[in-house]
Design a protein that fits this description.
Layout: E1 16-24, E2 31-38, E3 44-50, H1 53-58, E4 59-65, E5 71-77
Antiparallel strand pairs: 1-2, 2-3, 4-5
The structure holds zinc ion.
Length: 78
Amino acid sequence: MKEQFYNLEVDSMSWEVMSDREYPCPCKKGTYREISENDDWNNWREEVIMNCPSCKEKYVQHFFTKPDGEERWYWKEK
Ligand SMILES: [Zn+2]
């Protein structure tokens, strides 16, 4: 897959990839990739890369906060 991979290296001397997984995309014909990283100060960040061209056109990541304060997101139709 030739997705240009966000320049993880650029700002990330201290970011370490903790998990890198692929999940089925909303149309089920492709996948998206979820990368979790963790730095020396125990900060977390997540990057999500849609690999499916049709879902990339159609869906965006929509973030919301659950009542208990946890941040979540889902694929929302544009
Ligand atoms: Zn798809």
